[in-house]
Amino acid sequence: MRGAVVKGLDLHGPEGPEYEFILGDVTSPSDIKRLCAGCDVIIHTAAIVKEGGDRALFERVNVGGTHNVVEAAQAAGVRRFIHLSSIMVYGLTFEGEVNEESPLNGEGNPYCQTKIDSERVAMERHVSGQFDVVAVRSGDVYGPGSLPWTVRPIRMMKAGVFTLANGGRGVLNPVYIDNLVDAVLLVLQTNRTGEAYNITDGQVVTCRDFFLHYAHMLGRGRLRYAPAWLLEGSLRAWQFLLALFGTEPRIHPDSIAFVTRRGTYSIEKAKAVLGYVPHVDLVEGMRRTEEWARSVGLILPRQRPVA
Description:
about 15% strand, 14 strands, four-stranded parallel sheet
């Protein structure tokens, strides 16, 4: 795939001239038709990625948008369709380790459920050798540009409002963005299509240890903690008050469930079938993340010592 001509679609303008860009919306069939014309491969990443919120919006973008893209891609003669799904399709409250054969569970959460539904919409169109569909169930994606797992936590820490539930004992299964890209490139080459693959860094880390990296980037040595019930209750009360003014909270109460998870996700299938090896571990990933955060002003540059 190296040297491929890349075309992209988004609601906002591109960051560079390296690819053809279409200003458009996945909920618009005409925009998607323009995107798919002349393409051999579609990598579908567009989604509402939030812990909770307006269910209708999740349905319209995550499910309806996927339907638009997969339909237009098939009609345009696209040969391979990569659907960026999520490990959240397994739900939030399971214990132990899950793999690609484990049951899916939306648990009433709009993000979890619509990722299940959008994956189903894509996989139902799979036709081996004609329209090959693969679902990539990515872990907690962090690194340059990641809003939920990098940008927002750093901004919250800077604002003094970042508080972890239950001592930060919940676990994350992170995947650094470069590792995820490596996995997608491997998926583009596999003959095992019509299936899903879990993709993480293969490292389980507590929320405390993960977010301490950001605290240290900001020159802070500790995090704040509170019981999950207290944090969720406070956020629901705040949500109720904001609803009186027609406003959604910036921090949704359902976010507490995302940082108190205890389950883990096997990547053995991706290793065995795709040859996937996560080359960037957490320490290196956080080093690169800090470098990026300083370059874009999210974190202030380090002060040079005065001679």
